[in-house]
Amino acid sequence: MRRAAVLCPLLLAAALHAAPGPDLRRLEAPHFDVYYSPADREAARQVAVLAERSYGQLSRLFQRGLIRRHSLVLYSTPSRYRAEATTGGMLSAGSGGVTEGSSATIRMPVGFTLAGTAHVVSHELVHAFQYEAAARSHPPFPKLPPWVIEGMAEDLALGGEAPGVLTWSRDAARRPRGPDLSDLSDPQRLPYLAGHGAWRFLAARFGTGIARDLLAAPGGTIEDSLRTVTGHTLDELSAAWRAALRVEFGSVRGRAGRVLVREGVAPSLSPDGRFLAWTSPGEPASLWLLDARTGAPRHALLDPARNPRYDSLHPFDSSGAWDPRGRLLAFAASRAGLARLAIVHAASGQLDREIPFERPGEIIAPAWSPDGRRIAFSGLAGGHTDLYVYDLSTGTLRQVTADAYGDLQPTWSPDGGTLAFATDRFTTDLAALRPGSLRLAAVDLAGGTVRAIQVPGRGRAFSPRFGRDADELFFVGDPDGSPAVYRLSLSRGEATRLTPPSVEVTGLTPSSPALSVARDGTVAFSAFRDGKHEIAVR
Q1: Is 322 helix (H, G, I), strand (E, B) or coil?
Q2: Cα 353–354–359 angle (5° rounding)?
Q3: How far apart are CA 378 and CA 78, in angstroms?
Q4: How far apart (Å, rounded) are the C-alpha atoms in residues 375 and 373?
Q5: Are 62 and 212 in contact (CB under 8 A)?
Q6: Sheet holding 450-452, edge to edge
Q7: What is the DSSP letter of 16?
Q8: The pLDDT of residue 162
Q9: pTM over 0.85
Q10: Segment 178-206, tens digit of pLDDT
Q11: Counting CB atoms within 10 angstroms of each CB, which of 5, 64, 76, 401 has the fewest?
Q12: 52-87 confidence digits (pLDDT tens)
């Protein structure tokens, strides 16, 4: 899941921010003022509806509303948000939103999908309620660790059946020792994922009202507060949590395949399967190259520590794309809040060219055409994420889809006539603003017709990649709840599972690109194991 940032006295001193700029419009909702740029008017309307809906749910849970009227400042793209939302420097690539308790202001970008936007709205509103609980607290509110604050926000925003927390929980159940509440304050423990897992257990055991009760019953430490609310110590709660995980998920461990990268995401195999480009999940993210057959590292394709050319490589939403000859690698990036498509020489890491874009304002998930002349990608403009194709020889940009649905992760058919992609168009109710999950679709580039790709079973389907011919499509899906790599025959409609149920195939978020396929059928994928993301091949 996309991380959301909170700056509050529960954790650290609040940063000071400027008021919404004079070029922004204001939309008045019953409890919020939404500030937005003119191009994002429809997105602002959606955010207002989502915020009011979430506000109603949270005020019923906490049995009170927010005292102050909040401002919600909407940024056109995640990159602009990270560059402009704070005067204290660039926010991390994982920051999905910031809540400022001192000024009653929430700052967030337009999401790539309605589900992503709704997630951040609800997550940040939980922080607004946490702020006011802290302000009302007498005696002073205790300093709560990040896993409590962020885990509560994730659980109340997404619920206990969200794909990300289920992946984390299944992995935790398979670890020899299992999770421990006392360890979760360690930043390496992933406070958003682990915290969500902890709150999933606490809410199931004691009811969702435990969030309200905890905020109303401060103590000297989190252990004091939890003991007051639950009657149990951290050790007792941890033991019960581990037992509940084993009962629910079992403890069978599986092998993902041949592991090439112990900590990495966004795999991209060269067309001949010889090399693997991948992204480090740290801050800032780096782009690396290794030998896919031996696992031997080659060199950094882009290391921001040594070459701070870009603010972000979009590790949550994007991966690199090889040209058909395996000599060049294209990747999406941003600098000073503006979109860039960068192309580097794989052998040296030297920049070949850089293509700036004003519209769309954000690009992710590039894919090189089989003839090497075009690059497709997803682009965010005016609150909508659509597919685009850029012609490298003419410098022209074509918009392929144009609607309010989220179209992600395009991949070219071998003949170059079709793009398969992941989309929420078959599951999202735009009229009611009810987000849906990703499924697969294809668009004919000659006529622009979009059709559904039928995938057996229910659940999510994303990260599509064509195989050796136009009939073979690989993807990541979770028809039984556990995300795995599948191979689909488009003509027969039959899908074969390639990874076992005990392997959790996922990127940094449940919708991140997690799969790459070479021409010879070699598959590389990212998986979550022992609390970390790794990359394996089969």
Answers
A1: strand
A2: 145
A3: 14
A4: 7
A5: yes
A6: 407-412, 418-423, 439-444, 450-452
A7: P
A8: 96
A9: yes
A10: 999 998 877 666 789 999 999 999 999 99
A11: 64
A12: 999 999 999 999 999 999 999 999 999 999 888 864
